[in-house]
Amino acid sequence: CSSDLIALPCFSVSKDTIITTSPDSNIKVKIWFERGIHYNVYYFQKPILENGFIDLIIKDYPSISTSKKITKILQSSKNDIINVPIGERRKKIIDNYNQVALKLDQYYEINFKVFNNGAAYQISTFFKDSIYIQNEIANFPFSNKSTGYLPIVNKRRLEEHTSELQSHWYI
Fold first, then answer.
1. Which terminus of the chain, N or C, has fewer Cβ atoms within 10 Å?
2. Whole-model pTM above 0.85?
3. Distance of CA 41 to the CA centre of its chain
């Protein structure tokens, strides 16, 4: 990972942007705060997702998009092996990623994990009481030439459920 900004291994911050990469540096996630959390995902420097947006609307509390700023940024990495005792084809799963945790005001933290084969985010809340989530906004604007794969479950009469991997083009 390289950067001419404030840099830690595979992580950088400028005034407006946070960048983290996968452990092998092939996937890059660029994150910024502009009335909410926005992000881009690149694979071998080509855009896969452009201007993704994350928000969480909670009854009687401010949303992520009404937060004023990112108050704390924490970076971490993990390279571990998970031993699976039962039910999985593989007995060992590699758990290797770089993570950036963004603390927003007093209520929210958003964690971006970037693996060698993908990226994910997780929203955590810090409310003292129960909450009612009215809406979670998760916008995934794939670039015009991206390809995605997902398992489709087809139920057949008098047979068990089956999974088939089907390719879908996002245009």
1. C
2. no
3. 9
